[in-house]
Amino acid sequence: MGGRGPYAADVLPTGRPSPLRGTDEARRLQLGEPDRTGECCGFLSVVVQRFGGIVQWSNWQVPWTGSTPARLPELHFEAGQYDAEIFRAEAGGWWRVYS
Prior knowledge:
Elements: E1 3-4, H1 8-11, E2 27-34, H2 38-41, E3 44-51, E4 54-61, E5 75-78, H3 79-92
Antiparallel strand pairs: 1-2, 2-3, 3-4, 4-5
């Protein structure tokens, strides 16, 4: 099955903080959708939240494919390293595509 992930501009918007930033408030972030559209089958999404020195990705939602979806594990990132990478991506602009 094909699909698309978010465009870099969706997760690394210009002039405002990225929704990828880990904060104390849990936030559901859409990471992709099936090639049909997310409205019919759902989206690949995850909840991003900071717990002290850890940024956690959890509560995955996987697009419905007609079979039992895989259970994706929680991911834990050291908050300082995670923040540094998010800030680097926000500042760098290396992901922008110019036409």
